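Worked example 3 (structure in, sequence out).
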């Protein structure tokens, strides 16, 4: 079915539904066109997004061409179009996670989380060629005006980590350079095979990667046997020196490989096919000689037969995309290159090698292009991707400007939404991640606040949130929020290491500020915030998203404890679950570690219930790679005691949070913010909720009321500072 698109005033076409929701201000500058896909429906659109912000260690690139990776992108589109049952069948691991979450959090919160995840648009593409328009801080070796190939998305402007970029030689055209990333994928598969001169290698699947793999193997001096169902692709493979097997004609690939290898078995098989079948892997094992090698570059079924591999001692390896460095945040995001003496071929150096071979003619890709479309006509390209006609290489073309491209694009997109009332709290969000879009934005909207602007670094998530929740605008220019006279409050939901800086900017600009926890990561940052609040010319509200103290069951506990005159004892058990050591939250510089990043929630909760300052604290951490299995002891000035067991070594099937309060000869027990029981409490036995409520809505509403009415802060500033200091000190003591 042909998708419905409408034409805007610039002659660009966007989806009809988007045209009604989105209106970009083009009085002076143009928005950036980008291809997005819905995981919920599979629909593809060319959306207007703001120009991405140039980041440290990154290059801002004006795109000239991108290549559609037909196999990968078709799988994404097909997944989106699939029904719920088929989606579940394709991702059984995700189904298990959903079922575990249902057991602990309840049905409705789980359904809301799943729907929110599927509702987020997915930027498509990873084969980009363009011109550098901005060089981010800390980048060396690149200049404005350089032509670079990268894994940038299908978008007019992209911001890409420097280690995922490579300069394009003058002899290589933009169309050819668009194949660089696919070439690097093929090259990495070959590097894992480690072919030697004269070896016999089978390539299963003659798509773009398969044909490029064939050429590179021939350049290695290997004999190649190509296997596919498509006679036209096999014809291309033969043109590049391969012998072929036509599966559509009923040819036996195993028998053909036996003959091809002169009865010895082939030395290696590279599987570049995309299929759910296990047959390619089974056939690959049968084709191989003793101690042969198999490398999987594509996607196939992996129900392997032990006998196939055991008898021949076959080596099997799955190739990781473009090479060493892929999915390593230190390499990709932080720009930390691997020493060439120890890792000769990184993903960047693989990109360079592919471009070198294009430059001297050893790799020919221009003849592989079957379709060309302007970006504004991208819907036609995806009809071809969906199988409307045969295709191989599909190139998307982008308009370019000879002058400074950044002068012709805007970092803010305005939305046409109905006029709202005179809400006094006009808030702007910095950050549009999962938690913001799933919980916080909705909570603030329900509180009656005016949603003014939402900022995101890449632009896509901001456009999605702006459309969905009714913001006035979205931007990638975060600094503009602090100068915006139409907003009086900033909500911070970004990565932890950015919180302190944004809080200080908010205070300096005279805006109220709500920071999702933590407030900051270091004692020095905390001192700066304290000093800023004391010296601020305009006194504004500072609040941290300690939502648990606002939960209805916690409020009931607080009410019951008012009748207790003596000290109380609190035991908080948190089944936090394991997070990998390389996750950003575990990084001391980016996330601060889990005690600062999440443990502060529970320190604040006990501080609130005790109603007394923390006099002293101690902690003990279990030895582990992450150090996030910790017991924290708190002593309050009124004699109360608090113990927090923050454990990362438990089962996800067990509820996450349990609070026990011992006071006045009675006990209160709160399980996962759903079930509250009283033991020995006069006039109280239980307070159970049908749906988990951790207080996010009440927390947001309290902030908005304080902004509107100018009353007392919902959380006293001294408590916010106290909890931040204790959290940081505990984290530092366990290093």
């Amino acid at each position: 079915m042909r998708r419905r698109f409408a034409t805007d005033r610039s002659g660009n076409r966007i989806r009809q539904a988007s045209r009604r929701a989105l209106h970009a201000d083009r009085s002076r500058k143009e928005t950036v066109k980008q291809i997005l896909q819905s995981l919920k429906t599979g629909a593809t659109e060319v959306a207007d997004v703001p120009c991405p912000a140039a980041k440290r260690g990154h290059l801002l690139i004006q795109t000239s061409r991108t290549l559609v990776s037909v196999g990968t992108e078709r799988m994404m589109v097909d997944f989106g179009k699939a029904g719920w049952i088929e989606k579940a069948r394709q991702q059984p691991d995700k189904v298990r996670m959903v079922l575990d979450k249902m057991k602990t959090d309840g049905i409705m919160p789980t359904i809301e989380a799943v729907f929110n995840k599927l509702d987020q648009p997915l930027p498509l593409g990873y084969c980009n060629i363009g011109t550098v328009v901005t060089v981010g801080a800390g980048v060396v070796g690149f200049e404005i005006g350089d032509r670079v190939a990268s894994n940038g998305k299908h978008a007019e402007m992209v911001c890409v980590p420097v280690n995922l970029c490579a300069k394009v030689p003058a002899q290589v055209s933009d169309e050819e350079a668009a194949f660089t990333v696919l070439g690097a994928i093929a090259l990495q598969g070959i590097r894992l095979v480690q072919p030697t001169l004269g070896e016999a290698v089978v390539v299963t699947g003659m798509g773009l990667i398969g044909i490029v793999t064939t050429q590179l193997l021939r350049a290695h001096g290997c004999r190649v046997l190509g296997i596919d169902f498509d006679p036209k692709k096999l014809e291309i493979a033969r043109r590049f020196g391969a012998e072929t097997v036509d599966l559509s004609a009923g040819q036996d690939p195993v028998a053909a490989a036996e003959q091809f290898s002169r009865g010895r078995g082939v030395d290696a098989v590279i599987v570049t096919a995309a299929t759910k079948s296990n047959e390619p892997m089974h056939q690959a094992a049968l084709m191989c000689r003793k101690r042969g090698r198999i490398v999987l570059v594509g996607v196939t079924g992996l129900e392997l037969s032990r006998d196939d591999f055991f008898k021949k001692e076959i080596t099997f390896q799955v190739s990781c995309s473009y090479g060493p460095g892929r999915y390593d945040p230190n390499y990709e995001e932080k720009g930390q290159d691997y020493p060439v003496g120890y890792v000769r071929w990184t993903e960047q150096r693989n990109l360079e090698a592919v471009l070198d071979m294009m430059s001297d003619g050893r790799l020919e890709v221009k003849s592989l292009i079957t379709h060309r479309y302007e970006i504004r006509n991208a819907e036609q390209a995806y009809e071809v991707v969906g199988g409307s006609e045969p295709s191989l290489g599909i190139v998307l073309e982008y308009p370019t400007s000879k002058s400074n491209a950044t002068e012709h694009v805007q970092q803010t997109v305005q939305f046409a939404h109905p006029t709202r009332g005179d809400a006094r709290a006009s808030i702007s969000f910095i950050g549009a991640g999962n938690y913001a879009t799933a919980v916080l934005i909705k909570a603030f909207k329900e509180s009656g606040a005016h949603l003014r602007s939402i900022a995101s670094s890449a632009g896509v998530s901001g456009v999605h949130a702006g459309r969905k929740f009714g913001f006035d605008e979205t931007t990638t220019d975060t600094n503009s929020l602090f100068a915006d006279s139409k907003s009086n409050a900033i909500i911070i939901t970004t990565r932890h290491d950015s919180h302190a800086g944004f809080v200080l900017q908010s205070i300096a600009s005279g805006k109220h500020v709500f920071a999702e926890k933590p407030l900051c990561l270091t004692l020095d940052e905390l001192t700066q915030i304290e000093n800023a609040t004391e010296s601020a010319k305009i006194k504004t509200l500072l609040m941290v998203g300690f939502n648990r103290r606002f939960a209805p069951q916690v409020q009931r506990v607080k009410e019951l404890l008012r009748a207790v005159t003596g000290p109380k004892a609190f035991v908080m058990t948190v089944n936090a679950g394991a997070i990998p050591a390389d996750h950003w939250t575990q990084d001391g510089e980016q996330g601060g570690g889990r005690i600062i990043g999440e443990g502060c929630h529970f320190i604040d909760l006990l501080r609130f219930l005790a109603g007394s300052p923390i006099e002293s604290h101690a902690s003990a951490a279990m030895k582990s790679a992450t150090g996030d299995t910790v017991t924290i002891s708190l002593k309050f000035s009124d004699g109360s005691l608090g113990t927090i067991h923050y454990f990362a070594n438990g089962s996800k099937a067990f509820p996450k949070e349990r609070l026990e309060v011992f006071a006045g000869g009675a006990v209160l027990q709160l399980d996962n913010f759903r079930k509250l029981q009283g033991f020995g409490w006069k006039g109280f036995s239980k307070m159970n909720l049908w749906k988990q409520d951790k207080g996010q809505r009440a927390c947001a509403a309290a902030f908005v009321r304080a902004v509107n009415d100018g009353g007392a802060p919902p959380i006293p500033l001294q408590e916010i500072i106290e909890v931040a200091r204790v959290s940081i000190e505990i984290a530092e003591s366990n290093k």
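Notes: The chain has four domains: 5-176+366-400, 181-329, 420-545, 548-733. The domain at 5-176+366-400 is CATH 3.90.180.10 (Quinone Oxidoreductase; Chain A, domain 1).
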